[in-house]
Amino acid sequence: MSTEGREKGVVGELIARSNRLGSDPRNTNYAGGNASAKGTAADPVTGEDVELLWVKGSGGHLATLTPAGLAALRLDRLRALASVYPGVDREDEMVAGFDYCLHGKEGAAPSIDTAMHGLVGAAHVDHLHPDSGIAIATAVDGEALTKKIFGDTVVWVPWRRPGFQLGLDIAAMKDANPQAIGCILGGHGITAWGDSSAECEGNSLHIIEAAAAYIAGHSRPEPFGPVLDGYAALPDQERRAKAAALAPTLRAIASHDKPMVGHYTDAEAVLDFLAHAEHPRLAKLGTSCPDHFLRTKVKPLVLDLPATASVEDAIARLTELHSAYRAEYQAYYDRNATRDSPAIRGADPLIILVPGVGMFSYGKDKQTARVAGEFYVNAINVMRGAEGLSTYAPIDESEKFRIEYWALEEAKLQRMPKPKPLATRIALVTGAASGIGKAIATRLAAEGACVVVADLDPDKAAAAAAEIGGTDVAVGLAADVTDEAAVRAAVDTTVLTFGGLDLVVNNAGLSLSKPLLETTVADWDLQHNVMAKGSFIVSKAAARVLIEQKLGGDIVYISSKNSIFAGPSNIAYSAAKADQAHQVRLLAAELGEHGVRVNGINPDGVVRGSGIFAGGWGAKRAAVYGVPEEELGAHYAKRTLLKREVLPEHVANAVFALCSADLSHTTGLHIPVDAGVTAAFLR
Ligand SMILES: NC(=O)c1ccc[n+]([C@@H]2O[C@H](COP(=O)([O-])OP(=O)(O)OC[C@H]3O[C@@H](n4cnc5c(N)ncnc54)[C@H](O)[C@@H]3O)[C@@H](O)[C@H]2O)c1
Ligand SMILES: [Zn+2]
Predict the structure, then answer these.
(1) 259 CA → ligand 2 middle, Å
(2) Engineering a disulfide at 570: which of 81, 222, 335, 574 sits with its beta carbon 3.0 to 4.6 angstroms away?
(3) Are strands 450-455 and 474-478 parallel, antiparallel or unpaired?
């Protein structure tokens, strides 16, 4: 086979193995672990064969790894780094050396684990973070357990922060133990190897499964201790209601230093942990695997009240616990920081546990918040395994700190792209399955917000959300704004889905054009129910959350040129729009003290994409003006000062401007988006 063919074969096998291993959560946590293969490829400079290492680069996830996510390094050069290694105190300097080993500039940046993969003398190496393996790795007698479970086929390597020295340690251990198929890395995870990709994968799975089987066969019946009275999971409905009632306060707690997006889970593993006696002691011990600290912080905040405690009592106690948590975190930072440590990154918890209710996890976006929650579930599984066999003993606080505030991690954070303008903000847009609302939801998401698309039809709402992005960005739900219970449920779903609520857009509407004598009471009621009453209901339900969160917020009303302009055949619609317009001023006056800004937009003549125009109104207006319906937008444009057609996107631009930091000192304002209509000038 040609070298190119051989290279493709090696890389193909590595990707397939990585994807298989990564897609089973029992094998490794999200984006945790890495896999590598060594092989030959042609050196484009000399035409000669050179030995290469292909290894998962920094940051990627094994389950979705592609060749572009691999770093390719010259093995001779990588191994030669050992000869200039200045010792463990300066091991971080070796990372810069990886760049001098790269084979071409394609490919991902090498991760900290590159040394381990290069130095270990096996063609194929996996490094994984399986719950079962970490349970052994964090048991106080992990070394003895490793011997008991695996004999001499899997060897114990004491805890050491990942880096060049750990790579040397593992390589030396393998050389001294030629019979070994892998090792348990104290406090951390596992590494396995093989001469072929299949052998390596088999060895990894053997370690993971043997550890899991040993735990299953030897665990004490109640690793988390006896059941705690009053701490059992609340019934479904009650649990969800309490979670929604607490969510705004919990977000305020998590966002004291900087605003966060949240994720809620009532997974069985979490509720079970919180229902048993040992959970306060174990939660305090914190997590162990190095991947955890940036995502979950050293330890969670745990509400120390039973599930049966009232929402009011829970909130009062959480507030006290928050102050204590912040003080403790600051003390942990102060105890461990050195002159070179990066600045403290905020002292709020990233994981909050509420007995009977579940877990709230936080991050800079929904994906980060969700993964933080997944990681804590991993930690619970690890603690259950370790406590079932012996005693959970994670790495020391000072080592945790050395990872959380590692200069290399800090450098990674500094390299992250600047957040988008609406990052961490959570929006609820009513009537967002169509027209202007959909354009608004799309724009807010593009600017970094998480968006809930609410509309009458659940399928249309879901379809619009799916067009905007995955469920970490946008979700659709049914909510008739005239129905107070439905609106409350939509707000609850919003806070349970994304942790809170910041931007509310009252956009749902419809339009009947009739002269006074033809307007029925039912017509009047419909216009007023959807637009005037509907936006009152939505604003009221949302304001409770905005006030409790203490993060300010924005309420934007899509009113209309017709809230100002008086013309014939529009009594019900325009009166309802005028009502909405005055709600803007009334609520701006009332909510200002909470930092909530309330503004409005007066669009006009938005024909394209609008369901209002498509649903017969457009045909009627076109007939009135004597133009074909498809030219109605252009016709409206001719009547404007700017002679421009107004599109849904133009209204969305104005919503973004109102919600952006640039208009932070503006409330009670209406912005016309009508291409200039003199009769609707605000004065
Ligand atoms: N199109 C324009 O020229 C124009 C001008 C000024 C103001 N507006 C206002 O802009 C808003 C959006 O209009 P559009 O042109 O995009 O219309 P559209 O019909 O395309 O969108 C309105 C959406 O609101 C939804 N909706 C209706 N009743 C609802 C209810 N009870 N609960 C929840 N959702 C409901 C509809 O299902 C629809 O998806 C409306 O408030 C409208 O009055 C439109
Ligand atoms: Zn690791």
Answers:
(1) 29
(2) 574
(3) parallel
